Amino acid sequence: MTQAIASVLGATGSIGGEVARQLATRGWKVRALHRNAAALKERDDRFEWLKGDAMIREDVIAAADGTQLIVHAVNPPGYRNWAGLVLPMIDNTIAAARASGARIVLPGTVYNYGPNAFPVLRESSSQEPLTHKGAIRVELERRLQAASSEGVRSLIVRAGDFFGPGSNGNSWFSGGLVKPGKPVRAMFYPGKVGIGHQWAYVPDVAQTMVRLIEQEHRLPVFATYHMLGHWDADGTRMIGAIKRCVDRPNLKVRAFPWWVLPVMSPFSEMFREMREMRYLWKEPIRMENSSLLEALGEEPHTPWDKAVRTTLTSLHCA
């Protein structure tokens, strides 16, 4: 039997790396595209590391040659130059899928939605974002859907704010609540008590993707699924889990200093983008996962404390 092959863009990132590892564990051959793979200090030796750039179409097409799957989990770090990078990269991936016949797998975001779709987001909810980054994500998915008319297959799995092993500064968990590499002395929470928020544990998201990939024969050409993930109904559950995991029940929780972002925005693209996303913390927003349950029978879900403890350990905070 021929071994299935996946090409992964973003294998050094949080979700891309986890999907790649789970695919390798399930017997897939994984090709990982990286601009300077030889210089990586830590890399999974189960992957075939290829030198290449997601912004260079020929590199992406070559990496996908003979594959059945392209995991498109590459994003500009620190929110830098989304307008100039995000859409050219998905165009390259679509070209590679068209040439190889592979299915594209994309981690989706809530950025696609504006307040008119809140508070419950379904796969059919109207995508009318008010933000610049949200408009880019909508256009990205529009291009995938347009390509489906030509037979290019896609799978989008949409989840909440990522936390988990390998989560980086693009995550509210590691960029707001805690400081990677330092013991948890205090927390800065972006929302208010009483406002629900949806989180997504990276290994659960990756497992969901892989299990859907294994249902290829049942998936539509353009498939989209929402995850419920870790729903914090009143904004206290994540805080409580962190307190328990570091054994500090009286840990101070401060309001995130949103006021500083307008001051720093002229000097930092990341602060500008964070400021733009504040609306996602002002009211409870959650995804409805009935379509996913129908497809899989259940949604992978790691218990809160186990997921948070693993995340804190991976960030060297506990």
What would you note in describing this structure?
By secondary structure, the chain is of the alpha/beta class. It has a domain at 5-162 and 202-229 and 284-301: Rossmann fold. Helices cover 36% and strands 18% of the residues. The strands form 4 sheets. A 7-stranded parallel beta sheet has the order 3-2-1-4-5-7-11, with helices on both faces. A 3-stranded mixed beta sheet has the order 8-10-12. The longest helix has 19 residues, at 82-100.
CATH architecture of the domain at 5-162 and 202-229 and 284-301: 3-Layer(aba) Sandwich
Q: How confident is the prediction overall: mean pLDDT?
A: 91
Which H/E pattern describes the elements? Answer: EHEEHEHEEHEEHEEHEEHEHHEHH
Helical fraction equals 25-40%
Regions with little confidence, pLDDT below 50 for 5+ residues: none
Q: Using DSSP, what is the number of strands?
A: 14
- Major sheet size, sense and barrel closure: 7 strands, parallel
The proportion of residues in beta strands is: 15-25%
The CATH first-level class of the domain at 5-162 and 202-229 and 284-301 comes to Alpha Beta
The SS-based structural class is alpha/beta
Instruction: Give the termini separation.
Output: 45 Å
How many helices in DSSP terms? 11
If strands are numbered along the chain, what order do they take across the biggest sheet?
A: 3-2-1-4-5-7-11
Radius of gyration: 19 Å
CATH topology of the domain at 5-162 and 202-229 and 284-301: Rossmann fold
Shape: globular
